[in-house]
Amino acid sequence: MRTLELTCPIDRPMSREAVQARISRITGRRDLSAVVVKRSIDARGEPVYRYRVDVYEATERYDETPLAPFRDVHNAEPVIVVGAGPAGMFAALRLLTLGRKPVVLERGKDVHARKIDMALLSREGAVNPDSNYCFGEGGAGAFSDGKLYTRSTKRGDNMEVLRRLVQFGASPDILIDAHPHIGSDKLPVVVENIRKCVVDHGGEYHFDSRVVSVAKGADGLFTVRTAAGSEFKAAAVILATGHSARDVYEMLAADGGALEAKGFALGVRAEHPQSLINRAQFHGRWHPGIPAAEYSFALQEDGRGVFSFCMCPGGILVPSATEPETVVLNGMSNSARNSRWANAGVVVQIEPEDIPGDSPFKLYDFQQKVERDMYKAVREAVKGADLNPMAAPAQRMTDFCEGRLSGTLPESSYHPGVVSVRLDKVLPPIVADRLRKAFPQVRIRGYYSSEALLLGVESRTSSPIRIPRDPETLSYVSIPGLYPCGEGAGYSGGIVSSAIDGLRCAEKAARFFVTR
């Protein structure tokens, strides 16, 4: 085997057949097999796609390990999976391959019914605490662009996750793109196909099933109760509830379970015209047909990281509150990434030592207070005027850094509306001061600009609480057989890493039947 690099115009990506033909021309041979392993954009000169291709002799074999088959589990031992986000879905799929019956309990609605509640949230500011941009089938990632940027293999096989997503309807491009994404318009079909697979093989899905109690009996079985009064029993439970399920932490603490304060990041969403980011990142060479430009940066200010997070090229801003009288923002993009705006979280790392006290909830309380302060700031600014409860406080980037109220605000993709507020005063000083220093230092031409709009608050970057688990068994240190999993447990950050953690916890949960 040998590896070759190919380039082609960025507005004319090569098909598999075109790659094979190019390899034949380069080598003068038609008996070689070519496999594209990576595709990336090179914008240092005229923008091009750059392909890395593994080329094989006829005597060599390109063997890709087959995905494990799903087994019929209608009559198998159940494992309860709490949460149908990436961690929960991939835990359920792995259980199918291991011959265990996944019983998925999701507090929200199925991925299509969920859209109705999200529309009401954006249009009227009506918060359904169990069905919103954070809760419901697919989890927070289902309506946040579907970025799949995790490439680390430290914790598991990321390619297994990507191949499964393709199996259930995602574009095969995600297997080779350096920065793969699925898109919020395509992910619901993928999520629904995963559910159908689980159910067809004998697993169960139960929606509108918010878990209120997890108790282990003398017989070694867990009884899991929902707010609707349903009960489910199993020898193992995977707790994959996401980073916004505060009630789950309270449930564990009420029973004397161990919890730990965990660092997270908080800041703003920064929104620019996509044309500005295109010009900067493609050095003025962008033209229609070229993908919308992305960006990322990481700085250090006063001993803490300040960095971009969840960048959405050609995206929009959406409300992500999970309780009334709070304002929380997130970004999303459809697969085409063709809106007029680019947005990203720009956040400051917050560590447990930054917040006084010993409670494991201290960072969560800090997070919640900032979200409520955003809501109050808008109300004070409009002095009783009738507006969407999810209207966001906003400030031009230059005004934020120079400490003045913005007299006017640029047009924004945020549907509930924006209100001019001194965000630099509403944000905690440990956040605002670092952001003020960081923005002028971002090395993207035109990034620090009065055209850039800052909106508050970006606060759901990861969980501010960790549910401690044994590093070998992955079981909750307080209750063997209960497996804290994914972002909500404090062990992942994003779709792929959460899915990988779901796979790992499912392996351990299936093995628990043998060892208990």
Strand content: 15-25%
Indicate the structural class: alpha+beta
Total strand count, please? 22
Kindly state the percentage of residues in helix. Answer: 25-40%
Distance between the termini: 47 Å
Shape: globular
Work out the radius of gyration: 24 Å
**How many helical stretches?**
13
Low-confidence stretches: none
What is the strand arrangement across the widest sheet?
13-14-17-12-20-18-19
Output mean pLDDT.
94
Biggest sheet, in brief? 7 strands, mixed
Please provide a written account of the structure.
The longest helix is centred in the C-terminal third of the chain and has 21 residues, at 362-382. The protein is of the alpha+beta class and 516 residues long. The model has no long low-confidence stretch (mean pLDDT 94). It is built from 13 helices and 22 strands. β8 (222-226) and β9 form a beta hairpin.
Offer a few descriptive terms.
alpha+beta, seven-stranded mixed sheet
List the helices and strands and how they pair.
Layout: E1 2-9, H1 16-27, E2 33-42, E3 48-56, E4 78-82, H2 86-98, E5 101-105, H3 113-124, H4 158-167, H5 187-200, E6 204-206, E7 211-216, E8 222-226, E9 231-234, E10 237-239, H6 246-254, E11 260-261, E12 264-273, H7 274-281, E13 298-301, E14 304-312, E15 316-319, E16 329-332, E17 341-350, H8 362-382, E18 392-396, H9 397-402, E19 418-420, H10 423-426, H11 429-438, E20 453-458, E21 465-466, E22 482-484, H12 486-489, H13 495-515
Parallel strand pairs: 4-5, 4-10, 5-6, 10-22, 18-19
Antiparallel strand pairs: 1-3, 2-3, 7-8, 8-9, 11-21, 12-17, 12-20, 13-14, 14-17, 15-16, 18-20
